[in-house]
Specification:
- About 30% of the residues lie in helices and about 20% in strands.
- Strand 1 and strand 2 form a beta hairpin.
- By secondary structure, it is of the alpha+beta class.
Amino acid sequence: VFEHAIEDLIQHAQDMDKLHQQQQQQQLSSTANDIDPAHAFSNLAHTSKLSLTKSNILIWQTSSPEYGLEHIDVFSLYYREYFFEKDHTNYLGIIEPLGPVIISVRREKQSAGSSTFASTDLDKSSSAVGGGGGGHEHRDSRLRVIIRGKAFSDWRLSFLETTLKRHHRLSSRQKLSRRMILPYLHKMMDPNKLIKVNSKRIERQLLKLDELNLAFNYKIGVLLVKDDQMSEEQIFGNEHSTPAFETFLDILGTKVELQGFPGFAAGLDTKNNNTGKYALHTMWREFKITYHVSTFLPYNASDSQQIQRKRHIGNDIVTLVFIDGKSKFNPSIFRSQFLHVFVVVNEEMVGDKVGYRVQVAKNNAVPSFGPGLPKPPVFTDRQVLREFLLTKVINAENAAYKAPKFAKLESRTRHGMIEEIVNYYIKNHASADDEKDKGTSRSKR
């Protein structure tokens, strides 16, 4: 689903020779890539407690052990950080054999009398990109470009204008408009085949397109398994909770009344109590998590399948399973096309303390995700358990989107959005040109 691994997106050009080799070898080469994902993500998340580890895992500094968020495409925020509601130009069209393409270009001018760029603090320390230590390099304009298309992964570029001119042997005094830059990025980018579109509408559309895979709302299933329950029907058929299960739910979140609930409801009915009176909800870090708790969802004594409950939990990707007793949990009993990860928890005494043993089962198509289980995988501190479980389920869902089933759906959605945007503006552009031609003909008569 996330077409760029984080490692591939944060490569910085350390010198111009290496940079030029990359340009010659790659069809759509990046001149440089100096986006700071930790900064960009923190701006959206409104937190100053975010940092990036050497292994490119997002970390929130907490009093609990530091659990990193993985499989999050933080670079999808590039448009929001550097283009949205800022001066830039969007070009789009159909260029064979690439198909529909959408390009965003922005030139960041230097502040008068300053050696830094006016538009963002990130550039104040990015003198390594573009090479050279001369004053002229620091007084240069920075170009930022995003190239989107169906035939290739998104390219998010950042480079000094003199870098482009030097590589293509252009005069340093030659003035380049944003449109003139396009063929220098790639030989197929014929400006005559692209139309210019600037509007609030397309900005909102591109924001939605680029952040398609960036989620801040999560829905997670929660199941109770009692002693000797070995079938899907038995587990979904638990009408009543247990004290141990209620304690576990308190660790995960807060019980809220659904009627009139203004927050993220995860598809539950907030008007007529058709999906139960209560839900479990939490705001964690900057994420909203609403749980589909089996015992909160409506119970129907005449329905052995408990379709109401299956309709929600069976369509979740990640489910927490709490075993109250000594039953063995077998994930294969669940018949669902969506359930890909189960995080299984059961109580276990550690001395005179109640501990929680955690196990994880996942579909083979889901890539690995952290945090790793401690040895032994037993938690006695409930706050630490909460941090671990919430990090685990969010990482699990983001990892699951890379499984073929979900990756195909995402790719189809993304391609459809690109086609829809390009075709809409091409059609409206042609209609506008026709009206202009008619107006010109009438004035000549």
